[in-house]
Amino acid sequence: MREAAANGQLALLLEVAGTPKPGNVDRRREYPDLRFEHFLAGAVGARPGLERAAGDGPLGEAFERAIGGMSAQSGGNTQFGALLLLAPLVRAAATDRLDPEGATSVVAETTVAGACAFYRAFDHVDVAVGEPPADLADLDVRLGSDALEAVRDRGVTLAEVMALSADVDGVAAEWTTGFPRSFEAAERLLSDDGPVSRRVSRCFLRVLAEEPDTFVVTRNGREVAEEVVRRARAVLDGDADAVALADDLVDRGVNPGTSADITAAAVFVALERGLEV
Amino acid sequence: MREAAANGQLALLLEVAGTPKPGNVDRRREYPDLRFEHFLAGAVGARPGLERAAGDGPLGEAFERAIGGMSAQSGGNTQFGALLLLAPLVRAAATDRLDPEGATSVVAETTVAGACAFYRAFDHVDVAVGEPPADLADLDVRLGSDALEAVRDRGVTLAEVMALSADVDGVAAEWTTGFPRSFEAAERLLSDDGPVSRRVSRCFLRVLAEEPDTFVVTRNGREVAEEVVRRARAVLDGDADAVALADDLVDRGVNPGTSADITAAAVFVALERGLEV
Question: How many CB atoms lie within 10 A of CB B227?
């Protein structure tokens, strides 16, 4: 039986290996500056942080360590959101409570120090995020460690920071609601059959078709995000071709990163629940 | 700077990600029962063993641990030979002597206990190896731990075991001669340019064209191995297409595993010497 940190790392690798994953880097598609090899190096670098997430030290610091390691490659942000989902799920698995209630309790245990570590993680890598509301400008994650005074003054925990952006960020929404999309997608992976990389591709398409990808909303606007949902549904209905959609989205630089993050989280849960590789 | 064990793991991943690599599993080619995902899981499982190789415990045991972890996937032998090269090279890097002399001294430090661990590694996974000479039948590696009594009786170290098959096994030959092909190929990777996965593909082709792949000799016979050398040279000379060669060799089940092992070792050395990902 693979340990939780190893399954976390394997989930990152299987996610990026799934093909086609329309709009995302996969085994067959790359962006000129964001390539498959950067995701491999990101997963290698994340391992010590994932080991910490499986340990009993503070979770926010484990996440920061994972991001520091992930960033040690030249492609930029490869797996920030995926690791943000994996950190609490790895902790839940390592403490034998990998279900929505257990993951919710992991989230509830996060602290103000955890929030500070989360902000420091943004010092390691540029992450595309939207503008915060005016009354939360001092908690803008893009400030990185420059926001630490405000975080401490306001006394917000990592769980509370995530709740602030749950309506505009699909990863944060998972944190605040017991990771429902991650757990559901994991069950679909388990009930599917065939090579894992094909299952991951199908899983990703289903996640993509569920609702607008918040990373696409932030970078390309809501209209494009809604177009992606419609076209992903057409692929699932057999009315369009996944490979053609993948090629078109990569050509246009439409990269549904949040759906990829949730897929990685789903692969992790599925591995913990017996998905065989 | 990535640590030696992390670079060892990344080398395994970059090797399998390089495409085309005629005859081998890569990002675009798989065998029905030996798929890309098995190599990802093999690299994930090998990490704790690579960490031990970077530590100061016995090297043979570190190798055995790496193989135990690598084997925790359903594809069978994915990276036995690569890890057999990486173990001493990771040790050499971790002790600041990653050059032919340093690697030779690591080999010279191996023990009878290390040889025993090497034999135990064969209990974890089926490895295609040839028949030993009759006077060495009791040291047949395929006996796995059933050979331990003979290993102890004869008092052979791991270095001596490798020397026994150096003339029929390209990995063992590296062990006994200071890893010349691995170090040379690393320099070619460093002087090349462009995405790492393309460099790995070109590096592999050069290794393939150097001399008959001993894994192909064992499984497919010397004639096929010599054909592969000729055809790899034709690709390097611009007279044949690498993709066509890759498709043909995979169709025929001709898998030049030793050349892949040496390529993985070369990627590791190159990473340690500054190859940027």
Answer: 16
Tell me the CATH number at B219.
1.10.4200.10
> CA-nearest residue of chain A to B69?
A2
CB contact under 8 A, B40 and A276: no
Instruction: Give the Cα separation of B80 and B70 in Å (integer).
Output: 8
> Cα–Cα distance between B250 and A71 in angstroms, integer?
35
Counting residues of chain B whose pLDDT is more than 70, the rounded percentage is: 100
Tell me if A51 is assigned to some domain: yes
Domain membership of residue A132 (yes or no) is no
B128 backbone dihedrals φ, ψ, rounded to 5°: -75, 110
A155 part of a folded domain? no
Contacts of B73 in chain A (CB under 8 A): 277
Label residue A133 by pLDDT band (50, 70, 90).
confident
Does residue B58 fall inside a structural domain? yes
Query: Least CA distance to A31: which residue of chain B?
Result: B195
Q: What is the mean pLDDT of residues B42-69?
A: 97
Give the CA dihedral A121, A123, A124, A129, nearest 10 degrees: 80
Cβ distance B37 to A14 less than 8 Å, yes or no, reads yes
Of A2, A30, A196, the CB nearest to B37: A196
Chain B residues close to A73, C-beta within 8 Å: 277
Q: For residue B212, give its domain range.
A: 4-108+170-272
pLDDT of residue B26: 87
Count of alpha carbons within 13 angstroms of residue B60, beta-carbon side: 23
Q: Is the pLDDT of residue B40 over 90?
A: yes
Can you read off the two tokens belonging to residue A244? 């053609």
DSSP state of A201: H
In chain A, the number of structural domains is 1
Structure tokens of B204? 């592999």
Peptide bond into A58 cis (omega under 30): no
> Which are the contacts of A155, defined by CB distance < 8 A and separation ≥ 6?
A112
pLDDT band per the 50, 70, 90 thresholds, residue B252:
very high
- What is the ipTM metric for this complex? 0.95
Closest-CA residue of B relative to A15 is B37
Distance CA B40, CA B22 (A): 19
